[in-house]
Specification:
The protein has 2 domains: 73 residues, Glutaredoxin, CATH 3.40.30; 104 residues, Up-down Bundle (Glutathione S-transferase Yfyf (Class Pi), Chain A, domain 2). Helices cover 51% and strands 7% of the residues. It is built from 7 helices and 4 strands. A hairpin with a 5-residue loop joins strand 3 and strand 4. Helix 4 packs antiparallel against helix 5 and helix 5 crosses helix 7.
């Protein structure tokens, strides 16, 4: 499988991590996250949104959006529950990650990583919404060790990707003991790789 990738992207990392844990060979082509000038040529026929990650499956079919890619790859494995309700819970967390978590925590990290100048108001707004997302995860983890069904799934991978590097965006994890324990549990899973692998 070929993946258009970025080493700094948590969305790309999710796919790399799952592939490592599944033992799925992955050919990577690095793209710049800021300079998108080559994307229409490279990704246009594969992904109309021109975003990464975009993969080309071994049979030549393209697939985009990190959580869709993970869901496809996890089908029939222990990382995606067969139970209908638990599958829906996994989807619930995948949607939460893309709507209520990634737009705040990942964007704040990107601003810091690339030295992007933003107003104090913009930074404060991202911080407030990111803290809300972390608080929601913390509340849920007070009841269980993993996000769904008491076991490690792609829901954990999706939220781990940007949560474990949240301090790079200015989010302290000290107030979130359940999250810190959960991060350690995810990092201890067989086949785990770091984001910079």
């Amino acid at each position: 499988m070929l993946m258009y990738d970025s080493a700094v992207s948590g969305n790309c990392y999710k796919v790399r991590l799952l592939c490592a844990q599944l033992g799925t060979p992955l050919e990577r082509r690095e793209l710049d996250v800021l300079d998108r000038s080559s994307r229409p040529e490279l990704l246009g026929p594969l992904n109309p949104a021109l975003r990464i990650p975009t993969v080309v499956l071994d049979d030549g079919r393209p697939l985009a959006e990190s959580n869709a890619i993970m869901t496809y790859l996890a089908e029939g494995t222990r990382y995606l529950p067969e139970d209908r309700y638990e599958r829906a819970q996994v989807l619930q967390w995948l949607f939460f990650e893309q709507y209520s978590h990634e737009p705040y925590i990942a964007v704040a990290r990107m601003w810091a990583h690339f030295g992007i100048e933003v107003s104090d108001e913009q930074r404060a707004a991202k911080r407030a919404r990111g803290e809300q997302a972390l608080a929601a995860i913390e509340r849920h983890l007070a009841e269980c060790s993993f996000l769904v069904g008491g076991r490690y799934t792609i829901a954990d991978i999706a939220l781990y990707a940007y949560t474990h590097v949240a301090p790079e965006g200015g989010f302290a994890l000290d107030p979130y003991p359940q999250i810190r324990d959960w991060l350690a549990c995810v990092a201890a899973q067989p086949g785990h790789i770091p984001i910079d692998a």
